[in-house]
């Protein structure tokens, strides 16, 4: 049985102009929830879409009774959408996933199992690259490796893949990292992981199956530059005391 008040798991899907990809994704999630009998809710965060994203999501209420559409109103970015979804979530655990399900939703079991003993579980493409079913272009993969080296150097994070859009959290313990999150677009992942480490939350990186979607919304030039700048903004925020620890 699913409890509308407090499910075990909340699945957050940030979505911007995703009317074409959402049906297959929600069909897959509906089947996963039915087969796994998970006590879960699904939140589609509509990030100011200009297409029928919200209507398509609402049409799945029959197959996913706990589905909710959370509107941002205007386009704010993936980071803002994830934070908004987590703040609206009711589950003990919350997982966010990309709208194209680059990581199959069945891989959520690995993260959920890890959260029985830890606070944060992040999916990773780099821990075991043999699990990648569809690779990015060599240029994108190389850019990702360089970005990760910058993140590790500047933020002193130990993870080999901070950008995989498949992460799960024990919601109440992790509220503080979303409250203190400042980055609203694609550079938000390193900030969440930096904050988790800053606040002593126990985090594990778990290899997951993953297939690159050619319809990715990440613009290699514009977004990569902004993400690079965001890494330094995170470090600056920390030096300025913008991430205070709880007393």
What's the CATH H-level superfamily name?
Answer: Spore Coat Polysaccharide Biosynthesis Protein SpsA, Chain A
The unreliable regions are none
Helix share of residues?
25-40%
Shape: globular
Q: Give the total of domains.
A: 1
CATH class category label: Alpha Beta
Strand order of the largest sheet: 3-2-1-4-7-5-8
User: Major sheet: size, sense and barrel closure?
Assistant: 7 strands, mixed
Average pLDDT level: 92
Query: Helical element count?
Result: 8
Strand-pairing-aware structural class:
alpha/beta
* CATH architectural name: Alpha-Beta Complex
Number of strands: 9
Order of helices and strands: EHEHEHEHEEHEHHEEH
Termini distance? 39 Å
| Rg, nearest Å | 17 Å
Q: Tell me the β content.
A: 15-25%
CATH topology description: Spore Coat Polysaccharide Biosynthesis Protein SpsA, Chain A
What does this protein structure show overall?
The protein has 247 residues and is α/β, with parallel strands linked by helices. It has one domain: Spore Coat Polysaccharide Biosynthesis Protein SpsA, Chain A. It has helices at 22-36, 53-58, 78-88, 108-114, 138-155, 171-180, 188-198, 222-239, and strands at residues 9-15, 40-46, 67-71, 93-97, 120-124, 132-134, 166-170, 203-207, 210-211. The strands form two sheets. A seven-stranded mixed β-sheet has the order 3-2-1-4-7-5-8, with helices on both faces. Strand 2, helix 2 and strand 3 form a beta-alpha-beta unit. The protein is globular, with a radius of gyration of 17 Å. The N and C termini lie far apart (39 Å).
Chain-wise SSE layout:
Elements: E1 9-15, H1 22-36, E2 40-46, H2 53-58, E3 67-71, H3 78-88, E4 93-97, H4 108-114, E5 120-124, E6 132-134, H5 138-155, E7 166-170, H6 171-180, H7 188-198, E8 203-207, E9 210-211, H8 222-239
Parallel strand pairs: 1-2, 1-4, 2-3, 5-8, 6-9
Antiparallel strand pairs: 4-7, 5-7
